[in-house]
Structure formats: structure tokens, C-alpha cells
Write a structure and sequence with these properties.
disordered C terminus, Trigger factor, domain 2, 14 helices, disordered N terminus, Alpha-Beta Plaits
Length: about 500
């Protein structure tokens, strides 16, 4: 649906230029129905209904076959009686379509979704005016602040050699294989575990064969465990370790928010990482001519990640300042609907910036634990940025999309064609386009503000393990599987 329209015209219906002459005489009442919600009552005059009814009968007369009459010779009264249901349905469809389009053009409603109309419940009267009403979610009304007067702190600094070495190692680790070993686990090894979760001594969930890397933090979708590496260092096959977790206050399971859960890890295997050999096969898989070519691309990828971090720090401050006055309420239904979409877009942006899967999954689980508050803020940011993009005529070009897909293809080691096909299949192209448009809107604001700079935090290797499961119940899906493809057997892993 296009912005500013309640319903879209049928593209197969030709424009005969008669729109002005066939305007309906509408009486429209619009009232507030809650946060970002309008209640609309529409009255179509009896004369207009009669005109549409006559047109429907005339159209039917030219094709209706009735025994005893030639086509085109059937009396109108007989047609109206014999085909009453078909005529009423045709009138209803035409009146709704035309009146909604006219309503969209003539009234200052800025809808987000299609109106909620129970078409089957509507009845076209034999005489008198036709009334119908509906609720529709609309964009909030607000004023854009003068962002040219803002002053923002911005992190700066080029990547050091040590940072590049750490980044290179992490990149190679993301392409590593795993080999089962018969020794105690050490930091950065993987342990394959069955995990049992208990609350007040009662088992609430069990997950089998989950591969977890020994990092300092283990992050589930609705909880996290500190010092995970210390807990699991030294374990061997058959060992068991236990720890307590606190369920996030933003968990979808309301009854379990803030509750303490015991997690029992039963070790099935210990696995070590085998980094890839820098041979021609590996380089060709990455579409690199040489190790030097790979390093140049990694330098570019690291630069993108630093720019991402700088952009996020700057973006956060910019959005905080321009949304300070955004104290309007958002309906819970809208927040719930947009939670997954907002999450998907951030995961996509991290994938574009070249972050490895374990970083993206860790961020995903962090966001899920604070989904309600973060989504509410993300929605407000979206409305503000969308308004700025509209006001400044900012659009996402096809070349912008091609550039992002190319960078994603290099980072994942996939072909550009496969990346594009997967994005289309998972319905993420619209997310990508919207995300790039919002980025351009942020960049537009950034061009107007003033800056003071400070030394950025250096790049460090990831030290968070992730499990794409919730402690107290499944959450529908992991968006990382859309942003960066993960094979089914790795769906619970922190690394492939």
C-alpha cells in the first residue's frame, strides 16, 4: 500500500478520465479511536447508490442470459429480482472502492494499514443512504525539530594493525570446521550439550544437541548467563554443569518475567575449531585471487564495521535528540506487529556491515530480551525518519541495493545471485529498501548537525555465545536465518 492511501485502485482497471464527473457525494466523520487510531464513518447518498445500482444493472443487462429473453432484452426489474445478490455484491464493491479512494484523496488521513472493514456484514439498502464505518491505524502527528542546530559527539580513529589481526582471525573462525576431541574443553572450544531448564524444580523445557562456544557470556533469546566459559572449562564428554538464569523482564511469557530458572548442561561432545587453510580452494570460495586480495577485502570490511559503529553511535544520539518530543503513545497491537520487522532490519544492517553470525545472533538475543521497549522506540524513530525522508524527497535507488547485496555476498561467501534470490524469497527486499532509505535520512540529518569527536573503542573479538532458543518457550523464528543463512544443523550454534 502506498503511503497516504487507504486502498489502492485495481491496476487492471483503465483510467477513462471520468473520475471527476463520477465523484460520490460523501459525508465523512473522523474521530479519535485511541493512540494512532482513527474511527471513520462514511455516508454515501441515496442518489449515488441509485446511480451505481443503475450502472450495475446496465452492465449485467449486456451479458445476462435469461430463458425467454435475448441477451440485452431482459427487463431491468426482472434482472434486479433474479440477480439481486450479484448486483448487491457489485454495488458494494464499486461503492467501497470509489468512496475509499475519494476519502483518501479528500481527507488528511495517513494510514499505516488497510482499514478494518467487515465487508460481509455491510448491507446496501433498497432505499436511503448507505452507511459504513471502520477503524484504521494512522501515522502519529508531530513536528520535526530543527536538527541543523544539534551538536553530536562522534567516535573517530582509524583501525590499528592489532585490530585488523583480531578481525582477520575472527573472519577465519567464522569459516572454521569443528573436530571432536577427547580432552577437557578450553576457552573458544565448542561443547555440544543437551540443555534442561527447570523452574521451582519442575522441568519446563529441554533442548537437544545445542553447540555452544565457550565465551564469557551465553545469551538465549530471553535470558543470559555470565561466566559461561568458566562454568564449562574443563568439561569432558558425559559431564554435567548447572547454573541459574533470570528470565528477561521483556519475555513474551509474562508469567515467567524475572523468574529464576536452573539450566543443566549435559555434555555430549567437546569440539575444537580448525581454521581454514589459506589455499586456492578456500580463496576461490571467497572469490579472491590471492591472500593479498582477501586482506584488502577484509580491510574494507573492517572499515565498514567501524563506520557502522560510528554511524550507530551518531545515529543513536541524533535519534534521541530528534525524538525527544515524540511523547505520543503507540498501540500495543502496532508494537507487537512491528517487533519482528524492527529486529529483522537491524539484523540485516549488521549483515550488510559484515558482522559474523555469532555477533548478529548475540545482538538478536539481546534485542529479544528487551523487545517491547526497543520496538516502541524503533517505531518512533521510523516515523520520524520516514517523515524526514518524505519531506526531503529521499529515496532508495536500485544502485544502493545492488551495492549492499554485493558486500553481503562477499561477507557470506555466497554468490550475488543467491543472496538476491534468498532476500526475495524471505520477503526482505522491502526491509532492505526501507532500511537504506532511513539510513539516507539519518545521513541527511548528520550532514546538517555539528560534531565534537572522541576516541572510539577499539574493535575486539566476539566473546558472546548464543543459542537460538528461549528458556521458557519458543520464539517464532531467528531473523539471522534470513539475514545470514544458517544451515538447519547449526540453528542453535554460535558459529558455523
Amino acid at each position: 500500500m502506498s503511503d497516504g492511501q487507504i486502498i489502492t485502485a485495481d491496476p487492471d482497471v483503465p483510467d477513462d478520465g471520468s473520475k471527476e464527473s463520477s465523484q460520490l457525494n460523501l459525508d465523512v466523520e473522523i474521530s479519535e479511536a485511541g493512540p494512532c487510531r482513527k474511527h471513520v464513518v462514511v455516508t454515501v447518498s441515496e442518489a449515488d447508490i441509485a446511480t451505481v445500482r443503475g450502472d450495475a444493472i446496465d452492465e449485467l443487462a449486456g451479458k445476462a442470459e435469461v430463458p425467454g429473453f435475448r441477451v440485452g432484452r431482459v427487463p431491468s426489474a426482472l434482472l434486479e429480482k433474479r440477480f439481486r445478490d450479484e448486483i448487491i455484491s457489485d454495488i458494494k464493491q464499486k461503492v467501497l472502492l470509489q468512496s475509499l479512494e475519494q476519502l483518501s484523496d479528500d481527507n488528511s488521513i495517513d494510514p499505516i494499514n488497510q482499514p478494518e472493514i467487515n465487508v460481509d456484514s455491510l448491507d446496501i439498502p433498497e432505499s436511503g443512504d448507505f452507511h459504513y464505518e471502520f477503524d484504521v491505524e494512522v501515522r502519529p502527528e508531530f513536528e520535526i525539530p530543527d536538527y541543523a542546530s544539534l551538536t553530536i559527539e562522534r567516535p573517530s580513529g582509524e583501525a590499528s594493525d592489532d585490530e585488523f589481526k583480531a578481525f582477520r582471525t575472527q573472519f577465519l573462525s567464522s569459516h572454521a570446521e569443528r573436530n571432536t576431541v577427547d580432552r577437557p574443553a578450553v576457552k573458544s572450544d565448542f561443547v555440544v550439550c543437551d540443555i534442561v531448564f527447570r523452574h521451582n524444580g519442575k522441568e519446563i523445557r529441554e533442548s537437544e544437541s545445542i553447540a555452544l562456544q565457550l565465551h564469557s557470556e551465553l545469551r538465549f533469546q530471553d535470558s543470559e548467563l555470565s561466566d559461561f566459559d568458566e562454568l564449562m572449562t574443563g568439561v569432558t564428554t558425559g559431564d554435567t554443569r548447572k547454573a541459574e538464569l533470570t528470565v528477561s523482564l521483556q519475555s513474551p511469557n509474562v508469567e515467567m518475567r524475572g523468574e529464576t530458572v536452573e539450566a543443566e548442561f549435559r555434555v555430549l561432545e567437546v569440539q575444537e575449531q580448525i581454521l581454514p587453510t589459506m589455499d586456492r580452494e578456500f580463496l576461490e570460495r571467497l572469490d579472491c585471487d590471492s591472500e593479498t586480495d582477501l586482506d584488502e577485502r577484509l580491510q574494507e570490511a573492517l572499515k565498514r564495521q567501524i563506520e557502522y559503529q560510528q554511524r550507530q553511535a551518531t545515529r543513536q544520539q541524533v535519534l534521541e535528540k530528534i525524538t525527544e518530543a515524540a511523547d505520543w503513545e503507540l498501540p500495543e497491537s502496532m508494537v507487537k506487529q512491528q517487533t519482528e520487522n524492527a529486529l529483522r532490519r537491524e539484523m540485516l544492517e549488521m549483515s550488510q556491515a559484515g558482522f559474523p553470525r555469532e555477533h548478529i545472533m548475540a545482538r538478536e538475543n539481546e534485542i529479544r530480551q528487551n523487545a517491547i521497549d526497543s520496538t516502541r522506540q524503533a517505531l518512533k524513530e521510523h516515523f520520524v525518519l520516514d517523515r524526514i525522508a518524505n519531506d526531503e524527497n529521499i529515496e532508495c535507488e536500485e544502485s544502493d541495493i545492488d551495492h549492499e547485496l554485493t558486500m553481503m555476498a562477499f561477507q557470506s561467501g555466497e554468490s550475488l545471485r543467491r543472496i538476491r534470490a534468498r532476500m526475495i524469497k524471505s520477503d526482505m527486499m522491502d526491509n532492505l529498501e526501507a532500511q537504506l532509505r532511513e539510513r539516507k535520512a539519518v545521513d541527511h540529518v548528520i550532514e546538517k548537525v555539528s560534531f565534537t569527536e572522541y576516541e572510539r573503542e577499539p574493535f575486539v573479538e566476539n566473546d558472546v555465545a548464543t543459542a537460538a532458543i528461549a528458556v521458557c518457550g519458543n520464539i517464532t523464528t531467528t531473523q539471522v536465518k534470513d539475514a545470514v543463512e544458517i544451515s538447519p544443523e547449526d540453528s542453535g550454534n554460535s558459529e558455523s
